[in-house]
Specification:
The longest helix is centred in the middle third of the chain and has 38 residues. The protein is α+β, with helices and mostly antiparallel strands. The strands form six sheets. It has a six-stranded mixed β-sheet with strand order 17-16-15-18-19-20, with helices on both faces. Among the domains are: 136 residues, no CATH class; 173 residues, Sandwich (Immunoglobulin-like); 153 residues, Rossmann fold. The radius of gyration is 35 Å and the shape is globular. Helix 11 packs antiparallel against helix 13, helix 14 crosses helix 15 and helix 15 runs antiparallel to helix 17. The protein has 28 helices and 24 strands. Helix content is 48%, strand content 15%. The C terminus is likely disordered. It comes from Hymenobacter gummosus.
Amino acid sequence: MRGLLNPKWLFLLNSLPLAVLLLLLGGEFSVIQSLLPAESRLMWRWLTGALLTLAALPAGYAAWCLWRRQPLHRLYGLLMLLLSVGFMFVYFSSMVGKLFPPAVPRWMVGSETSLYAFTFLMPTAVHALLVLVVYSVPPDRPARALPSFGLALAVPLVFFLGGQLLSLLPGGFWDLLESALPNRYHNWVAAAMAALAMVAGPLTFLFFLARGLFIVVSQRAGGWQQHELIWKILIAGVLPLLGLAVNSGLLFGKYSSDGQGIFGDFSSPWFYGLAALNCLLLCLPTPAGRWPRLGLLAARSALLAYTLYFFVVFLPWLPLSVLAIILIGTGFLMLAPTLLFVVHLHQLSEDLAGLRGLFARPVLTAAVVGGLLVLPLGLTATYLHYRGTLHEALAYVYAPDYARRYQLDAAALGSTLQMVQYHKTRNRDLLGSGQPYLSRYFTWLVLDNLTLAEDKLSRLQQIFADAPPPADYDRPASTDGLAAVMGARPLHPRLTRLDHRSRYDARQAAWVSWVDLEVMGTNGASQEYATEFSLPPGCWVQDYYLDIEGRREHGILAEKKAAAWVFAQIQNENRDPGILHYLAGRRLGLRVFPVAPGQVRRTGIRFVHQEPVQLSFDGRPVRLGDSLQHPAPAETATPNREVVYLSRAAKQALPRLQRRPYYHFLLDASAGQQTHRADMIRAVQTQLQQPLAAPPRFTLVNAYARTLPAGADWQQALRAAPAEGGCYAAGAIRQLLTQQQLRPADTYPVLVLVSTATGRPVLDTDFADLAAAYPESPAYYVLTPAGLEARSLAEKSEQAWVEASAPGAPAPVRAWPAAARPRAYLPDDAQPAVVLAQPHVTFPVDAPKTWASGLLLAGYDQELALHPAQAEATRLAAIQASFESGVMTPLTSYLSLENEAQKAALRRKQAEVLQANAALDAGEDTPPSAVPIDGGATLLLAAGGALALRQLRRRGPARKQGV
């Protein structure tokens, strides 16, 4: 331990942690600064100055010591200990409330932010304490360890007896205090007692405990030499294993309903196995040969990472050890990592001293450093494997390459999803939940600091493991309609006024129209106004506003997932957000929150369109533009003719023809339907007795889709198909629709999903993004014992569609550009059309704010649906083009925010989302009912002593008032 007097330690244990602390706090301040009052801003300046001073002074002193080639002085230990601990006490007792006032929402900074100072200053304080310990033990004469251990044990005993004596005072301690001292001194006495309980007591306890242990291991005092093996077994084996068992609830029961321990979840068998192995390595006698001794050094160095991990995890809890020992019978186990760390370091020091004459210094350094890297590199390699497995599965489901044949390792994916679920649900705080630090590392490395929503986790498990859908898979329909029929007054805000105005912009050759909405709150509490509307082809949203507290706040065009996450957080605080976003296909959603009873909220949307359009809001139609004033051109294309817009008249002028339909059966070959394949064969044979115009086709569907060649023996293929995974019908449908769109033919498929009543096909909510692939009809069918049940690809694909026409019913289409060799088939309706004329879309460096930019982005939407793997490479360019042009796309949303802090939080979350895998999520799809306070156990326990003193002080006045 005398090596701790080396000045180089100050750069690692002081300068580096404080630099990280300044960066973390600086990032939080940049978000919340606009919400801070003058007093808080002044406190932030004081905090910055104090941290810079705490970092600069030791760094300068370390440089001076290195220049003078002298060790750290004992005065450094004393002064730095007083400064760091005093700063932490003042920080928690006086500064935190001003740095993060109630005006700052917790979701902007997180509850762990207030713990940063404690976490990153503890290494400095502990090092300073150990410097004092080293100087307190004379190196030239033996010292006794027993008095130090006795004084350490006396500290909690004195506190316990003192508390008991104070409770026995007549009238209570605070009554006696009030009678003896004026009121103005009471706060000083309370602060002094808190400092004594939370600072002086724990420091005294830790000092004498560390001193006694240092004497024992360094001078082999007392019975250490005679009973060294017993002490090592106790410190390296019994205490760690007992602590893990107590924390995990194996002894004395569990401490929480979710199975987490007091200090985190260390229930994995790996923690117990490594603890036992570490004890074994530390207890092994020194081998005779030099190479076995070097191997033992490397092995002990490898397990030092395990010891160091728990030392760092429990480091912030050390000042609370006295309180924990008094309140919790097993609180002394908190000290086990510290004791083990000292013993482990001393053992490595002895090993190095014995090997210096046998090996060169670089060899010994390589053995120690290489050993230290074994566990971190192994953990990193494991997490990288999880990342690769997860991203491959996400690519297959959300950005597939239809030209590639996938075969994923289902077992590896299953364990990966279990780890994602584990860290996802338990990663709530920096300390005290999940696996401290490891869960954060997993989230950073595997999930890019984002998450995987529950519906996506469930979806992957259904696809690759044939897992059942979640319990709320079939959600009940809303009861609002029933309440209205029964005469109850609606509780949700209603649209009270709808205005519109249009002007023709010759610069972009398009109409610019505003639709202004007024909504009023109804009876009851504040509610959200939510509505949906659809856009015709060629009509884009280019601006949005919401009136907030008398001012008009234009929306920020942001990445869709980041915008939804920020909206959900603000909504939980009853503030004033508004969001406009795509739902599916050309269907948009508008949400405004809150709308109080009787309150009128105003919002508006700007549309750009080349032709007059008719929209509908809550059943109120509105027509925008005038074709008589400025008739639309027949055809408009992007500069490179990547995307073509056909007006209504131009589309109606295209050749009209009718294609031949054929059945395309999707046969459920999942693991759960293996015993029902004969029933499915009979059902298909029965349906084929009513043939369509063209011969049928067949695709086997389990976790993957395999389309059989024309004329193949589909019955034998189904019987021989491997029963693996679930029935990923959505992937099969998308693959078939994509092929239909990319290879237009004079026939078209009538999709029929064949499963049984026990089948669990995995379907998308809709396939509206592939609407161009089914111009005849959005209908597809499920083969049931009663016959074919129609459903819609356009929306609610899992529900029956009673309005659907019969399979293969005549449905004319339009051939573009000609009937001879058409490149696309378009629905024969009165709407215009947007056609992707080339496989890929190229975005300009700066997308202009014009209608033509919207046309290019609409083409990219089709490219993303048809070539998801290739289009993923240009996703960021498409989002940037949306930002520059102001045209909202399915990848972006308009969000109106109340203040600059919310906008800064949006920018920070958006940066995280844009750097991560596109399939990952900023949060759950459904907004939480409340923003959880994610932990803060350390802060709560640290404040416990102060709260207890405050409560004791209140007891005297309460008794006088008869409470």
